[in-house]
């Protein structure tokens, strides 16, 4: 099937819940040796029928609690995290008058800790996730999980009961022939939120294609670390490949995103850790 027309527009808010630091050159080929800050971005979406929906959650204090000892402490040493309680997703939403119980769905791009850190704060939400991404981490022991950027304790105890794979929930849709990604999954059957496979960085990673009233937006998760990297064709340093699931798939996805941006320059591509869109101090909300 093709994407339904007319596509249902949504409201989109971009926020960050904490940030990590590491040298710029790791994420931007030819970048500086100096330490740079990378916000843990998440999106808050208001659907006209389904209400408030999150795309990822950023960090929460549970990350710091669960990385006190080996092997998980290696995670926080490699990518030191900065977070205060007021920066968490649940607190930022509360400041906007949105309670935790009003968040009906959380869509997960993949299962790295900086994307699932706040899941336990939203006990009323249903979780939608790519099956491949979950299968790749759910049985890992602590050492392999650390290398995969996954901390099982961040998942709610009832995750298996309230979570659903997008492959089970959503129909395949064919995208426009000009788009270098041939198909996606229509999460609500109305064209409002289309999950796009963006493999490479993590197993089964997805992005989210949506339309607000003024713009078409692709939340590309970690398929790129910044708008600048895409714009200037500066993919990560080979060192970053040490934490990637599939380096070649990452490069292919990166090139397809660049091609999509060239073909459709009006498309706004939003990487999850890009400071163009996310404020590291968690004080500014970007509306698209």
Automatic annotation (TrEMBL):
Q: Quick check: keyword Transcription regulation in the entry?
A: no
Pfam families noted in UniProt: Lactamase_B
- Do you know which SUPFAM superfamilies this protein is assigned to? Metallo-hydrolase/oxidoreductase (SSF56281)
| Catalyses which reaction(s) | 3',5'-cyclic CMP + H2O = CMP + H(+); 3',5'-cyclic UMP + H2O = UMP + H(+)
Species for this entry:
Cohnella soli
Provide the alphabetized UniProt keywords. Hydrolase, Metal-binding, Zinc
Which domain of life, per UniProt?
Answer: Bacteria
Please give the cofactor(s) recorded in the UniProt entry for this protein. Zn(2+)
The Metallo-beta-lactamase domain extends over: 39-273
Q: Supply the InterPro entries for this chain.
A: MBL_superfamily_lactonases, Metallo-B-lactamas, RibonucZ/Hydroxyglut_hydro
The answer to whether UniProt assigns keyword rRNA-binding to this entry is no
The family assignment reads: Belongs to the metallo-beta-lactamase superfamily.
Name of the featured protein: MBL fold metallo-hydrolase
Identify the stretch annotated as signal peptide in this record.
none
Functionally, this protein is described as follows:
Counteracts the endogenous Pycsar antiviral defense system. Phosphodiesterase that enables metal-dependent hydrolysis of host cyclic nucleotide Pycsar defense signals such as cCMP and cUMP.
């Amino acid at each position: 099937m093709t994407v339904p027309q007319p596509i249902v527009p949504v409201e989109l808010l971009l926020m960050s819940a904490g940030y990590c630091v590491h040298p710029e050159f790791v994420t931007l080929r030819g970048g500086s040796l100096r330490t740079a800050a990378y916000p843990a971005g998440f999106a808050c979406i208001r659907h006209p029928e389904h209400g408030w929906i999150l795309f990822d959650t950023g960090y929460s204090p549970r990350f710091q609690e669960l990385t006190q000892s080996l092997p998980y402490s290696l995670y926080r040493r490699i990518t030191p995290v900065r977070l205060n309680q007021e920066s968490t997703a649940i607190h930022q939403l509360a400041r906007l008058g949105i309670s935790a119980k009003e968040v009906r769905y959380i869509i997960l791009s993949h299962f790295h800790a900086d994307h699932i850190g706040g899941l336990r704060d939203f006990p009323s939400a249903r979780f939608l996730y790519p099956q491949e991404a979950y299968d790749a981490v759910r049985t890992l022991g602590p050492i392999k999980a650390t290398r995969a950027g996954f901390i099982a304790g961040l998942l709610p105890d009832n995750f298996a009961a309230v979570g659903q794979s997008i492959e089970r929930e959503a129909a395949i849709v064919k995208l426009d022939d000009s788009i270098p990604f041939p198909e996606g999954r229509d999460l609500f059957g109305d064209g409002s939120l289309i999950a796009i496979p963006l493999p490479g960085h993590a197993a089964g990673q997805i992005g989210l294609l949506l339309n607000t009233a003024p713009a078409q937006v692709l939340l590309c998760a970690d398929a790129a670390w910044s708008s600048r990297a895409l714009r200037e064709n500066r993919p990560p340093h080979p060192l970053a490949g040490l934490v990637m699931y599939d380096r070649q798939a990452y490069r292919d996805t990166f090139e397809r995103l660049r091609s999509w941006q060239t073909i459709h320059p009006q498309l706004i591509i939003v990487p999850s850790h890009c400071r163009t869109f996310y404020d590291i101090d968690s004080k500014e909300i970007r509306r698209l």
